[in-house]
Amino acid sequence: MKTRNEITIGLIQMRCQKDQASNLKKATEMIRLAAKKGAQIISTQELFTTLYFCQAEDHSNFNLAETIPGPTTTKISDLARELGVVIIASLFEKRAPGLYHNTAVVFDADGAMLGIYRKMHIPDDPLYYEKFYFTPGDTGFRSWQTKYGRVAVLVCWDQWFPEAARLAALDGAQIIFYPTAIGWHPVEKKQYGKAQHQAWETIQRAHAIANGIFVATTNRVGIETPYGPPGIEFWGQSFVADPMGTIIARASATREEILLAKLDLNLIETTRVHWPFLRDRRIDAYSDLMKIFRS
C-alpha cells in the first residue's frame, strides 16, 4: 500500500491598490502567514503588485513594469529562501525597451529562480486591453521540479485553452497554477454573472479531469476603478480542484483570504490508472489541431 504523499499549497487572494510597494508588503505578509500555517507551495494572483491596469490603453502604465531579475524578484527569492517554501509570483515584465510580458516566476524553497513562464494567450476585450501591453509569450508550456512537487504555471486567459493544460501535463506537471485577474463588468453581472463564473470554474475543473492532475487558481478580489466607474468587480473565489475535478477548497467572493489545501499527489497515479486518458490518446489522428480551422 502506498503511503500518502501530501503537500499543502496556499493561494494568496487579495485586494490591490495603486501603490506597488503597499501591494508587495501585503502579499509578503500573507505569504509569511501562509507558510506559518503549513503551506509549502504558495502562489500570488496575476499582476499582484499593481491594480489591474489593462482597463485602458495608457502608455504611462508601462512605467509599472520591471526587469526579471529585478527588485521584486529579489525580494520574493529572499522570502522563499527564508521561509523554505516555493513561491509563484506574477509580474509585469520589462524584457527590453518596448517589449513587455505578463510573466510568472517560479522560486524553489532555497530561493533559486527555477524559471519563468510568459503568458501565451493574450486577450483583448472591453476593460481587458492586454494586447496593448503584453507581447505573447515565447517560453512554451513547461513544468519545474520543486522541492515539494512538479508544478506548471499558466496565466489567466490561458485557463480557457485545453491545449495549454495538456502540454503542461505532458511535461510532467502534478499541479497547474493559474494566477488570475478575472471579474464581472458590473453592468453585466445580473444577466451574465452566474453563467460566466460557472464557465470559468468548469473549464478548469475539466483540465484537472482530462489530465489527471491538480489545478489551483488564484484570483484577485474587490472592485477596481482606476479609470472611473464602472470598473471591474473581481470575483475572487480562488479554488483548488483534484484530479477528479472535485473542488477541495474555495475562497470567498468578497474577502481577502489565504486559501490552503492539502494535496495527496498519489491521487494522480490512482486517477490515471482508472481513467487512462493519456494512454488512449490518438496522437496519430490529431494533426488538424495545427490548423486554425478545418475549412
Fold and architecture overview:
The chain has one domain: Nitrilase/N-carbamoyl-D-aminoacid amidohydrolase (4-Layer Sandwich), CATH 3.60.110.10. It has a 6-stranded mixed β-sheet. Strands 6-7-8-10-13-14 form a 6-stranded mixed β-sheet, covered by helices on one side. It has a 3-stranded antiparallel β-sheet with strand order 9-12-11. Strand 2, helix 2 and strand 3 form a beta-alpha-beta unit. The model has no long low-confidence stretch (mean pLDDT 97). Helix 3 packs parallel to helix 4. It has 5 helices and 15 strands.
Name the descriptors:
six-stranded mixed beta sheet; 295 residues; 5 helices; Nitrilase/N-carbamoyl-D-aminoacid amidohydrolase; 15 strands; single chain; 27% strand; alpha/beta
Blueprint of the fold:
Blueprint: E1 6-13, H1 20-36, E2 41-43, H2 71-83, E3 86-96, E4 99-107, E5 113-118, E6 143-145, E7 150-153, H3 162-170, E8 175-180, E9 183-184, H4 189-211, E10 214-219, E11 221-224, E12 232-235, E13 239-241, E14 247-250, E15 257-264, H5 266-274
Parallel strand pairs: 1-2, 2-3, 7-8, 8-10
Antiparallel strand pairs: 1-15, 3-4, 4-5, 6-7, 9-12, 10-13, 11-12, 13-14
Helix pairs in contact: 1-2, 3-4
Distance between the termini: 52 Å
Physical arrangement of strands within the biggest beta sheet: 5-4-3-2-1-15
Large-scale geometry: globular
Query: Total number of helical segments?
Result: 5
User: How helical, in percent, are the residues?
Assistant: 10-25%
Task: Summarize the structure in short.
With 295 residues, the chain is α/β, with parallel strands linked by helices. Helix content is 24%, strand content 27%. It has a single domain (6-279), classed as 4-Layer Sandwich (Nitrilase/N-carbamoyl-D-aminoacid amidohydrolase).
